[in-house]
Design a protein that fits this description.
Elements (H helix, E strand, L loop, with lengths): L6 H14 L2 H10 L1 H6 L2 H9 L4 H10 L25 H14 L14 E5 L2 E2 L6 E5 L4 E7 L4 E8 L5 E8 L5 E6 L9 E9 L7 E3 L3 E6 L16 E10 L3 E4 L2 E12 L12 E8 L5 E9 L4 E12 L2 E4 L2 E4 L5 E4 L4 E3 L9 E7 L7 E6 L31
Parallel strand pairs: 3-10, 13-15, 19-22
Antiparallel strand pairs: 1-2, 1-4, 4-7, 5-6, 5-8, 8-9, 8-10, 11-12, 11-14, 11-16, 12-13, 14-15, 16-17, 16-21, 17-18, 19-20, 21-22
């Protein structure tokens, strides 16, 4: 749907609709909006907060537009009393109009589509037609890919869907293949924030001519390749080996995974956490703690390896990968899967929630894309409770034999 609003045309439509309205038309609208009778003014609040106004509201307002101090024409009309002064007048219509323009004001080209001149992909999910939403991760690296003519200038605009304010997120030049990858660090977007992205790419011959990609709405969740569908119990597997990215007084990071270091954490090839520096290659044996935190119970320093390895249980599966250790792991056509339980090569469809897996990721990869995934890795069983000692048998008291009877 195109959201281009001509205010004069709307005003004329309202007048014409008012003149043409009949009792039957009112009853039809009344039936269609019967939910408003129970929600009443809460409907305005709901629609206002959800930022989902559409042209449907503009077809209903004329039925209720009666002027200052006039009674509501129908019970559902109270929902259109935007300023809560017990009538529906032009001030209420103006409030709806302002809200409508804000809701559709992120971009003027909602109907643009991805094409060879301008294309935008977010987190390896194909851009979708508004209002469908793709996912971005608060805790993850987010990847935007702009494509168009080689060496063309480009710009990515980001719009806050709640406020309607927009800004240029990144601008630059596509490479020789007509591609630009934008890696967005964790915490750039806030949890539950809803954003709209759109790319424009200039024509290489006539730079004033600009092509527009599809406008795509994204919802920020904690992790993006899949929602966390399964909260792991305390003590669940959480191991990693890779380069240290941060060390604080009682935490250590490998990538964007943070492990808590406790007084009972043991160390190998190093005396304490204070001796570990950025870039050291470490092996962390850990487990899930309270609130899905990660706890290191053993940390060892070793020589660097060609890939980062993560071990844990699958917490969710999505179209682009899965979640483990609370973060996203992405897969591609080049990712290989091997099931240790059956000794066979499989694919992403064989991955199941709760399954213990090991994932190998390239060290130099800024984006967590899996090279190899091993399914059903051996997991040390939880210690069985020690059996209670069997009670010692009670000594039976000796009963004297009965006297001999003949």
């Amino acid at each position: 749907m195109k959201f281009h609003l001509n205010q004069s045309a709307v005003a004329l439509t309202i007048v014409g609709t008012l003149l043409a309205s009949t009792a039957d038309a009112q009853q039809i609208r009344h039936a269609r909006n019967k939910t408003y009778r129970s929600e009443s003014r809460a409907t305005w609040a709901r629609v206002h907060q959800a930022k989902e106004l559409s042209l449907l509201e503009f077809t209903d307002i004329p039925t209720c537009l009666a002027g200052p101090t006039a009674e509501f024409a129908l019970p559902f009309c109270e929902a259109y009393d935007a300023n809560a002064d017990n009538d529906v007048d032009l001030r209420d219509f103006a409030a709806y109009q302002r809200q409508f323009m804000q809701d559709t004001g992120c971009f003027s080209l909602w109907d643009a589509a991805n094409g060879p001149q301008a294309s935008l992909t977010i987190n390896r999910n194909a851009a979708t037609t508004y209002p469908e939403t793709i996912l971005m991760g608060e805790s993850d690296l987010n990847l935007l890919v702009v494509e168009g003519e080689p060496l063309a200038a480009f710009e990515v605009t980001i719009c806050n869907y709640s406020s309607g304010t927009s800004e240029t997120m990144r601008s630059g030049q596509l490479d020789e293949t007509g591609r630009a990858e934008i890696v967005v660090p964790p915490a750039r977007f806030a949890l539950n924030e809803v954003l709209v992205f759109q790319a424009t790419v200039a024509d290489t011959v006539s730079p004033a001519v600009r092509y527009t990609s599809m406008a795509t709405r994204a919802h920020t969740i904690r992790t993006m390749s899949s929602r966390v569908d399964w909260i792991l119990p305390l003590g669940s597997l959480a191991d990693i080996r890779g380069p240290v990215t941060e060390v604080t007084g009682n935490t250590i990071n490998v990538g964007n995974l943070t492990f808590q270091v406790r007084p009972d954490t043991t160390f190998a090839n190093v005396g304490s956490l204070a001796e570990i520096v950025l870039g050291n290659w470490v092996v962390i044996a850990g487990e899930f703690g309270p609130g899905s935190s990660l706890i290191a119970f053993e940390i060892g320093v070793e020589d660097a390896k060609p890939d980062v390895r993560l071990s844990g249980r699958v917490q969710g599966i999505g179209p682009a990968g899965f979640v483990m250790l609370g973060v996203s792991i992405f897969t591609s056509s080049s990712t290989t899967f091997y099931d240790l339980a059956t000794d066979t090569w499989v694919d992403l469809n064989a991955v199941e929630p709760g399954m213990p897996i090991e994932v190998r990721v390239a060290v130099e990869a800024l984006y967590p894309s899996a090279i190899t995934v091993f399914l059903n890795i051996p997991v040390e069983p939880e210690p069985e409770p020690e059996p209670e000692p069997e009670p010692e048998p009670e000594e039976e008291s000796e009963i004297p034999a009965p006297p001999f009877c003949s």
